[in-house]
Amino acid sequence: xxxxxRLALSVxxxxxxxxxxxxxxxxxxxxxxxxxxxxxxxxxxTHDAPDQVGxxxxxxxxxxxxxxxxxxxxxRWRAAGSGTVVxxxxxxxxxxxxxxxxxxxxxxxxAVLGVPYDHVRAVAYAQGAAAKAVVxxxxxxxxxxxxxxxxxxxxxxxxNGANAAYARFGCSLAxxxxxxxxxxxxxxxxxxxAPADNTRRMQILSNxxxxxxxxxxxxxQASGAVSQSVGGPQ
Length: 234
Fold this sequence. Notes:
Layout: H1 2-21, E1 45-56, H2 64-79, E2 85-90, H3 96-112, E3 120-125, E4 134-145, H4 171-180, H5 185-188, H6 199-209
Parallel strand pairs: 2-3
Antiparallel strand pairs: 1-4, 2-4
């Protein structure tokens, strides 16, 4: 009888040990505790950051390199949504008249490159004890920022009794999205979708109602055949 009791006790201890193995692991809090799915543990955050170009004031006006810099600046400005360009002129420049003339030349160049005058806001700033007087042109652009996956611990990947995602699950996906997205404003919904073009759809519906073929006509240039010149049947 004693041996049976010992056997029952051993079975109970084994069951408890197995239950302990299947217990949920210690939770590793993720950046987003309110995530509904594992892939939502990490998100790409967006914020506005100034895109700025500095133009050293020259008595002879804008140089060719400065015009090229403004041209590249306008390309980025247009891609960022064509917002307001802030043109800052140093109020404490050694030659105030030359600084104003240079800023006007920069504004005219921006207009030629496609930035309307009503999109430019001219302001003054104090540059202090800078070696050279500089006119600054800037605009706010959306920037995507992903999570820093290197700073997040992996956790115990073998402790999956709760069938939960590990701590870094989805982190690289969010980081890659932040690095690759062309326009971060898409993540904020700032870019509304263009209206759909229903011309083709209405044509297909019209063909269907009249019993005509609804598929596109075969393009002869898209036809092809396997070459029999090498290795083909003789």
